[in-house]
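Is alpha-D-galactopyranose placement plausible here? Inputs below.
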Amino acid sequence: MLVPSIAEDFRQRFGAEPLLVRAPGRINLIGEHTDYNDGLVLPAAIDREMVFAVALNEVGRIRLRSFDLNESFEVSPEAVRRTEQADWANYLLGVVAQLQRRGVAVPGFDCVFGGNIPIGAGLSSSAAVECGLIYALDQLLGTGIDRLELALMAQKAEHEFALVQCGLMDQFASLFGRAGQVVELDCRSHAYRYFPFDAENCRVVLCNTGVKHSLASSEYNVRRQECEQGVALLRHHYPGIGSLRDVTPEQVNVHRDELGPLLHRRCLYVTEENARVTAAGQALQAGDLAEVGRLMYASHAGLRDQYEVSCRELDVLVEASRGVPGVYGARMMGGGFGGCTINLVAAEHAAAFVAHATAAYREQLNRELETYQARIADGVGVVAAQ
Ligand code: GLA
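Reply from A.M.:
I modeled the complex. Tokens:
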């Protein structure tokens, strides 16, 4: 229903036939807070998406409309800058600014977008918005910019217009997702490879805490700085290192005293998490979901105790998943301080697991739990009008 509604809204408002693009949100099996440390991540695009209707116009204006918020924003291409008037518009304007910076002459265009990615749930609705528009404009203008470059530009848009110093994972997953597969990205070399995901037997259940603590974006940027401080100290001993990607957990432990307890915890987490991503890829290939699950629980423990980006709601949900029949593993997902947990659950046990988690959340925190079963889907692409 999403695509026809957005297309119809566009036609009625602008009286033209738009290009239609879908841009998915993402999950991440494992590899959290590793992307901006040049590390490894293992995300996938999902069947929650933003849909864009976009066409160039003759009026020399950029006319944007959020279907879900029923709000509009208009600006001329020459005057694109960050705005205080409409938060949502910044994700779109940021992308236009990146194209302009590359020397692409962006003419007036019309855009209606809307979707079903829950906002603030850690499913990267913002990356989907950035990637959907940059892809649509790329198609309409025939810029010939490749997908990786589009992902990097979308990431830049997030830095400069949403003011979050994010890594590349979300934008990459939205643009490079493949149905039925997860993708391992090396955030340093940008090399990537796909691993099969056995959707027949295993479900990805997302449990949405329904909270997003206000710390999320400020602490995110603080974590980045802490990692950089750790690297600066370690570089005295290992002059060749460029990032935590070049450091082993053993090396971090050797310099524990010099790092101090806080930086030691942060650096140890990142170096151990990179190793877990590699191990999870191997386990997936071997069809060993029990091992993937074990690594997910270990990842959560690290995010909670070492990296300190979890919160009570997330911890309650992860603990509630333990020992439930059919559950392979669970952990918090995304930046932290709220959003979703990701749970790998044997298909035949998924419904019972959802009932169990819902009851536990109500009992322990007196909150209602929203859950989604995510299907792993293709990345950004053009869709038919239907
Ligand atoms: C957010 C950022 C990503 C990544 C995750 C944590 O989703 O946008 O780049 O850093 O947090 O893994």
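Short version: Residues 32-33, 35-36, 124, 166-167, 169-170, 334-335 surround alpha-D-galactopyranose (CB under 6 Å).
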